[in-house]
Every structure is written in C-alpha cells, then in structure tokens.
Amino acid sequence: MEPNQSSSPGDGATLLRETSCPLKVTEDIWFACCSCTYVTRDQHGIVSHLVAHGNEQSKCQHPPMSGSKSQVLGNTQKHKREKPFKCKLCPQEFAYNSLLTCHNRTHLGEKPFKCKQCPKAYAQNCHLQTHNRVHTGEKPLKCKKCPQAFSDYSSLRIHNRMHTDKHPFKCKWCPKAFAQSSNLIDHNRTHRGEKPFKCKQCPKAFAQNSHLRSHSYLHTGEKPFKCKQCPKAFCQISDLRRHSYLHTGEKPFKCKQCPKAFAQNFRLTCHNRTHTGERPFKCKLCPKAFAHSSNLRDHNRTHTGEKPFKCKLCPEEFTCKSLLNYHIHLHTGEKPFKCMQCPKAFALNSHLQSHNRTHTGEKPFKCKQCPKAFAKNSNLIDHNRTHTGEKPFKCKLCPQAFSHNTSLIRHYQTQCLKGLQVKRMPLKLCSE
C-alpha cells in the first residue's frame, strides 16, 4: 500500500477519524506522523498524537502515512533524508518547514503555548498538551509488563528500560548507570561538586534544575501535585507518586533474594546492597563508605560541622533529618512505628525494621570472611573487627583497648572500677 498523498495538508487527524471501517491490527497496518518520527500500529493512537501537534500539524506538507511497517519506515527515512529547511543560526536541518519554525523558537526563547493552570509555557503545542496531563492526572500510556501508566512517551520509554535492564549511560566514578544521557550529565555534577542552579531567595544551589524548581516551592508554599484520594498535596510529582502507593499498596519491584517488594525501583536498588554489602559512596576525608548517597551527604556534615536541622522545642541542632525526628519524639514521647507481631513501638521506622528481623529471623548483613550473618549492620561492623583486629574502644584508666563497646563497659565493671566505692549522686532539680 502506498502512503496516501491525496488529502489536503493538515487534515491528517480528520482523515483518520472519518475512516468508515477502522483498520484491524491483524492487517499489519502501521501509521507514521508527518511532523515527527512517531510510528504506531494503533489507529486511535496516531489520531491522539496528531491532535497533540495541533496547529503545527496543520502546516505539514504531507498527511499521516500508512502501510506496512517496512513501507512506513521507508517513507519516514526518505523524509528524514530530505531536509531542505536549514536553520540560519545553527547547523540543524529539517524535513518540514513546521519543524524549522518550532526549532527557531529555541533560539528566540519564544514560548507561545501557555498553561492555564500554572506559569509554565512551551515552544510547541504538543509539549503543552503533554504538560496538561500533570494537572488532569491523565496517564493514557500504559506499560505492557506492569500496571504503571504514564502521561508522556519519553517517561514510558525510560520506564521500559527498567524491565529490559537497559542503562547504557554509565558513570566513570561509581557503579551507577542511567537510562538517559541527561540523567548521567546531572549525576556527574554530584561527583564534581558542581551546583550551577542557584536559588534567588536563599544561598542554596543545586546540581539539577529540577531540584531547584522543587526547592523554590519551599519559598512560595506552592504544592501543585494533589492526591485524588486524600487532601494531601506535594511540591514534587515524584512525592505524589510515592504517596499514591500508600492508597494502592502496589509494590511491583520485587527482590530476587528475599520476600521484600518495593513501590519504586530505586528503593529496590538500595535494598539489594544489603545483600551484596556494596558501599559505592566513599567519604573523601575518612575511610568510611556508604550504601546510599543520602547517608554520605549526612556523614559529610560531621566533617563540616554543619547542622541544618534545628529543633523548635530546644536549642539542639542535627546533621540529618532522621536524628531531628528521633529527638522530637523524645520531647513528645511519641512512638508512631508499631510492631504488628508484638506490643513494641519505636520512634524511628529504621528501628522498627531492625526489630522486625527478630521475628522473621532475617539476617541480610553477611560477613565476607566467614559464614556469619547478622540482623543489624552495626553488629556486622562490630564482628568485622574480630577479623581486622581493630580496637577503637580504649580504657581511660589503663592501656587496654577493645573491639566492642560492651567489652569496654564490662572491663570497667570487673577490673578498673572493681572495689572502688562509687556514690550515685541524686539529681536535684533547681526550683529557683
């Protein structure tokens, strides 16, 4: 079948909508957009895609192409090779004048397509149509391998790489790999310490523009991403997505070595390090290394002395938010994290997770030098000293040193302080 060239330009979506007998997928008919490289077997999909191009598509010199896959791709390649429309400001060339017009806006900074619900504006109408789904919550593009759905093709394409494990863009300084080159470029700044995106209202700066944008909401108080099932709203769409799993209970990312499952792929990646013992994030000022970048960031503050997390109930300050949260629970006495198998409750979720292993018998922290395994990472660290011979706990009354803090305490009680009469002084509270 030759691609249909008889219809008037710009009538591509109308042409397909008015087809009296929709084409069946079994006929192996494919459709290609005249304005970009989009190709699909879905007749309704090409209609939606053409509508998203809006006025730009009406300027197209060709209607949408249809035919067998080889015919459509051949014609698409032919149009890609013919690029008579040249940009005057850079070397780029285009098959259609409409694409050159859109491209010119990147040089001029023109963004005529404005969102009616937020300050964002776009150079192309199709980008505005995609953005509008952020507000409507529409996710028409469904993954064929898991229940997730997406508002735009690029997000679906990136997500599909998680199923195929395609992360072609690898970091030279750590084991991380990325599905997109732009993500690798952003990530590389964390190694170089580059933070080109500066906040205009405070001294903070960021490695990624998206992080600056999210940070700016702290100043404006804006929370554009609203949950449809409860009154909560969020500064970041990723936070909303994470929150939505609390309602659905969905955990599509399953660990292959234990029964755990996670709502997000990056949490599974982090969890896998408890099995492998991998600690790719190394401190530049001391020998410590960490499984998570956030732990390294918190640790670095012990060197710089920075304590950005301040208690509102007392003058105490902390290097990380988890310590502040734990400290606040000491004021309130609150223990919100309750064990489902016994009456115990905890101030921190991490403490509950450690406690749960006493019920499950799980010991994810394995020694690399002997068969022993432990429920807590701190126990593994203590155990490793039996192999290294390290004795960091030194007695202040004699030259002895110990590999465990408990051994030092026992030493004080049975040897150095034995026979000494130590008075316990009652604590007096001043009433003045």
Descriptive account of the structure:
A hairpin with a 6-residue loop joins β8 and β9 (149-150). The protein is elongated. α2 (43-53) packs across α6. It is of the alpha+beta class and 432 residues long. Strands 2-1-3 form a three-stranded antiparallel beta sheet, sandwiched between helices. Strands 4-5 form a two-stranded antiparallel ribbon. Strands 6-7 form a two-stranded antiparallel sheet. The chain has four domains: 12-108, no CATH class; 115-253, 2-Layer Sandwich (Double Stranded RNA Binding Domain), CATH 3.30.160; 279-358, Double Stranded RNA Binding Domain (2-Layer Sandwich); 367-414, Classic Zinc Finger (Double Stranded RNA Binding Domain, 2-Layer Sandwich).
Record the SSE blueprint:
Blueprint (H helix, E strand, L loop, with lengths): L11 H6 L12 E3 L6 E2 L2 H11 L1 H4 L6 E3 L1 H13 L3 E2 L6 E2 L2 H12 L4 E2 L6 E2 L2 H12 L4 E2 L6 E2 L2 H12 L4 E2 L6 E2 L2 H12 L4 E2 L6 E2 L2 H12 L4 E2 L6 E2 L2 H12 L4 E2 L6 E2 L2 H12 L4 E2 L6 E2 L2 H12 L4 E2 L6 E2 L2 H12 L4 E2 L6 E2 L2 H12 L4 E2 L6 E2 L2 H12 L4 E2 L6 E2 L2 H12 L16
Antiparallel strand pairs: 1-2, 1-3, 4-5, 6-7, 8-9, 10-11, 12-13, 14-15, 16-17, 18-19, 20-21, 22-23, 24-25, 26-27
